[in-house]
């Protein structure tokens, strides 16, 4: 971190800044020029808040040089993290293909879809039991009953389960029953929830918040990791922009940016990002080509009757075609599913 | 709600749509033209999800005519809601001025500030005990100890307390000790937390999410209200845009828009919106002039040493000047503090 | 400007950076610390492009300390600029109230509205002769005929004319006939047009681009000013965000931000910003309260028949009420119309 | 277009709406239900402005059913447009790879790069002679001299030239010397410039504005096409969002969205979108995989000395590697360069 001092500051003012920096565990390297005075902060600056430094009247500007995350930082962990979910791997060339219905609706539905997506090559079953809905009057998911149905589908197919946790209340159940705990976009900065899943050992799929910068997203991963759980999978699912042709704007650039900054695996959810089923195939191919570690795709046996988000769901037949098409893109990236 | 049908749909397809609509409690008014077929939905359409209707192949477009919220809707409650917090009112001409430190740091600090802001005319004490921070390494607030200090400041001044709840875990304590429970921007769509505060009778200050539309914000209010707690105060605190000169972009238009759509009171937080202490005064005046029901302002006795967000804090002296200046704006709006 | 060097750079690399800086007219103040090496740039850094410096492999980060604009910068011109438009002043406590129809439609229309808005206290007539429209099939304005009608209205009322120039082709006509040349939001970075109006002496109203930062906006003003024309009035008219309840999001914070950075006057256009006539009054009051130097308001004698943008137009009667209401706000700011 | 009427409208009010619609060349299909009255507009609705209809007090809502563009609309031109630039084709399976320096700096530079990119497989030379720069103090390009240098490079390599036109003043020179006229993002709604290039026969590369919706972009293409020039190539180059890790957010979803709505070819510019040279390769691959009709890539022989935008430029060697890598992606899409 670099602090640019205002011209004419006093020694007393400088001392106050130095004291503040040292009280947060870093050291000050005073670097004096003829016309400019700059302080370079040395050591661990993670505990220093640039905004706090700006409260000092003698401080002109503050420039972050190091990233504020540590455990998520590639600098201190250059090799890509490979997350092992009961034998199925994600990261470092292993793609995770998570497919399934937006909402779990019945045993018949979820088992049928699970079998279909497995046959097409998916290696995870995703399905919503607890659903975050904008309206309190919309269908909120089958909740615990949905979780039971997912377990049946897992028994039938062997596919590990990915499903969203919305409340600490059910964390124990999730740890017991679920293979990957999904934290949804709306809860990306529900810090309490992040800390609690951080205390478990269950892999966490952390969706990017709709208006979250990549840095904030990695800081949310850091919340989980700093509690001890380093099994974090990032999932880009579109950010909110002014464009209305798609539900959100899928930020595929996030994949190479994350690759540069972090060792954590990152997957892409083209279904939620666009809200349009015809866009899933082209964006799935692009996601693999850009280097993503996997995909999350909504698949439904009868989109016209899905209880939620049917507009973005594809049928098992379409999913099968997509899987065939992405096969060669996967090979080109030197990856395997 | 209006459904525009695609040309050439079959009777069978139409029946499916009608069935779906009726299963959600509304009725279909088929309105046939020479070249266009349109379905008008009659009755309560709150349970109908436009996205679901778009999954039907015969449906071209869906247009919402009514707003999706009911209890927050001005249509069914034309008079402004006045929320009575143990005798202090907000709404319908009563302004709530909530002032205090970003973080509660010590008894001395919070009592001193509470007395100062009361003397200047504030009628609520705001102060953070639990702090949502982007980084897990930043100061997270004094937590329960902070709550105790707020209670002391309340005893000393009589000012009702507004403070943020981040986890259901502490809800009972908040119901007991706190006068207004604040739900922060990052938790605006933490639906679980919304439902739980909705089951209490304590007034709720609901901050707008950084990337939330006004409609989504009112739907989050609806989550609280639909559980039985109709004491919701909205708080605009800036939305996320591309502009970097201010931390967020304060959306003052939200005040007259909310006025048109809802009966709930709405206040403005210029401190968090801009992140700059020099912008607080002009935006506080503008907020009153645009018709807001109150303000939330960060006040600190020594901004340079504040443990968080000092850059946006003003001193008690500056707060006093602002209060003097907004007095006449308050009168112009026919309001009282 | 501050350059943070990467650890381990060579003397040769440093020399290249120094050479690049000096070739742009600035000097390098090398400020060496124990662990960090920083270059402070001294002198006029306006010709140095931070992005160019980042191309050097030895450069880690670049931090701008000074603003990149010079003539628009308050630092070098602390007193507010007062622009005198044939006797009518804007800036430094003089408010410019620009009212009139979105499109000039007929002599009768524009004269009638001009007389009405003058009677209510407006001191400028605004009206579109050339209209920027998203669709080539929409009405594009009466063009030169519209300009003639504006001149008639000016003769009848004495109000100076503000109207939009979209093409260099008509610049001479505008210089001759128009009192303030408006550059629309879509042309804010039409640098060719900016340079050409910069070569005239006619005051320029520069609208903020829909996705322009305040810094880019001031740089566009700088384009005009650097050619010799320092009579620039800024006009905030809403920025593009995800919110759809209003057409754009009016950024009233821009007023105090501009006040801090520049000496140029800034006015507010609540009509275009919101696209809703009911929001004009509250936002007009807020604009004066936040310290704006004036307003631009669409007024139409029959909104229901306006050829464009009727939805946001108010009637002369409503305009008269607004003018009465903002009178006291104007006084409170110590300003005069 | 569908008009939803407010309950209780009078016959007289209805007549006024019908008259307005008919005066714009469309017809009204009145579709009456029991509880809702809706007007369906039949015929060519391109001349009808939804905002105008909303000015009528009896109109509740207006819903566009057809897209507002005609010549750019796939509905009326289902086959993909293939643009033939003196024998080099773009669209319908033919990829256009446009490579070259951001700014033309010298004959040596541009000829060297042109030869290199041709050898690697590029089929167009792009290079800036006139440069749009945020600051009037930044290098603005060699202008007409740069154009001459591009012509020399064309003679030496046979590559057709793509370069940006910023002012109508030079249109004749561009028509004579240039193969594809680029309209930059900042001029996407410079309607005057669009109309003028629309009167030529030279192919136009139309970059998307930084805050333009896909619909607005296609309407700008329509401006060019409605004047007679149907040779429009669209170019996505990133949109402005809150994210700061990349300069803009590349919207790759725009490719399949455009494919669905229009017959015009669309290419991707990963260099400007991200502003980071390391992101060019992964996004170039993703662009081909998502179905784009080509790429625009900045290539410079010495990025560290480029006069502008060097940070995003890659060397000819890196460009060669990228071209080798995208070869197989091109084949997978059934396309040829």
The chain pair with the largest interface is:
C-D, 51 and 52 residues
Question: Which fold name fills CATH's third level, the topology of the largest domain in chain A?
Answer: TIM Barrel
Low-confidence stretches of chain A: none
Question: Could you give the order of the helices and strands of chain A?
Answer: EHEEHEEEEHEHEHEHEHEHEHHEH
The radius of gyration of chain A is 23 Å
Strand content of chain A: 15-25%
State the shape of chain A: elongated
Number of domains of chain A: 2
Specify the number of helices of chain A: 11
Determine and state the CATH class of the largest domain in chain A.
Alpha Beta
Q: Mean pLDDT of chain A, nearest integer?
A: 92
**What percent of residues of chain A adopt helix (DSSP H or I)?**
25-40%
Distance between the amino and carboxyl termini of chain A: 41 Å
Seen as an oligomer or otherwise, the chain set is homotetramer
Quick recap:
Chains A, B, C, D: Keywords: Transferase. Chain A has about 325 residues and is an alpha/beta fold.
Describe this structure in words.
- The structure is a homotetramer of 337-residue chains.
- With 337 residues, chain A is an alpha/beta fold.
- Chain A folds into 2 domains: 62 residues, 2-Layer Sandwich (Alpha-Beta Plaits); 259 residues, Aldolase class I (TIM Barrel).
- An 8-stranded parallel beta sheet of chain A has the order 13-12-11-10-9-8-7-14. A 4-stranded antiparallel beta sheet of chain A has the order 2-3-1-4.
- In chain A, a hairpin with a 2-residue loop joins strand 5 and strand 6.
- In chain A, helix 10 packs parallel to helix 11.
- The radius of gyration of chain A is 23 Å and the shape is elongated.
- Chain A starts with a strand and ends in a 5-residue tail after the last helix.
- The interface between C and D is large, with 51 and 52 residues.
- Chains A, B, C, D: Its EC number is 2.5.1.54.
């Amino acid at each position: 971190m670099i602090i640019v001092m205002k011209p004419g500051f006093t020694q007393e003012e400088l001392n106050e800044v130095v004291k503040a920096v040292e009280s947060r565990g870093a050291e000050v390297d005073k670097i004096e020029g003829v016309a400019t005075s700059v302080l370079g902060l040395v050591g661990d600056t993670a505990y220093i808040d640039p905004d706090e430094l700006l409260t000092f009247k003698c401080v002109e500007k503050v420039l972050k040089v190091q990233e504020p995350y540590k455990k998520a930082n590639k600098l201190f962990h250059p090799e890509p993290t490979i997350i092992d979910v009961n034998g199925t791997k994600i990261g470092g060339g292993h793609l995770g293909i998570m497919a399934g219905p937006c909402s779990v609706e019945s045993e018949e539905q979820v088992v049928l879809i699970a079998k279909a997506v497995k046959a097409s090559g998916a290696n995870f079953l995703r399905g919503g039991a607890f659903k975050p809905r904008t309206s309190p009057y919309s269908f909120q998911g089958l909740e615990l009953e949905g979780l039971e149905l997912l377990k049946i589908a897992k028994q039938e197919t062997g596919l590990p389960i990915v499903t969203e946790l919305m409340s600490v209340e059910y964390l124990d159940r999730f740890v017991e029953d679920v293979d990957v705990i999904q934290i949804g976009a709306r809860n990306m900065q529900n810090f309490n929830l992040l800390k609690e899943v951080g205390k478990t050992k269950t892999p966490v799929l952390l969706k990017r918040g709709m208006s979250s910068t990549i840095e904030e997203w990695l800081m949310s991963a850091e919340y989980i990791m700093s509690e001890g759980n380093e099994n974090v999978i990032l999932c880009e699912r579109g950010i909110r922009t002014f464009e209305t042709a798609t539900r959100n704007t899928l930020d595929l650039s996030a994949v190479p940016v994350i690759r540069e900054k972090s060792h954590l695996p990152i997957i892409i959810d083209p279904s939620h990002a666009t809200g349009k089923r015809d866009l899933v195939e082209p964006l799935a191919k692009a996601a693999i080509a850009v280097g993503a570690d996997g995909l999350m795709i909504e698949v439904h046996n009868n989109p016209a009757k899905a209880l939620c988000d049917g507009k973005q769901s594809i049928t098992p037949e379409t999913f099968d075609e997509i899987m065939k098409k992405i096969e060669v893109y996967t090979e080109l990236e030197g990856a395997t599913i």
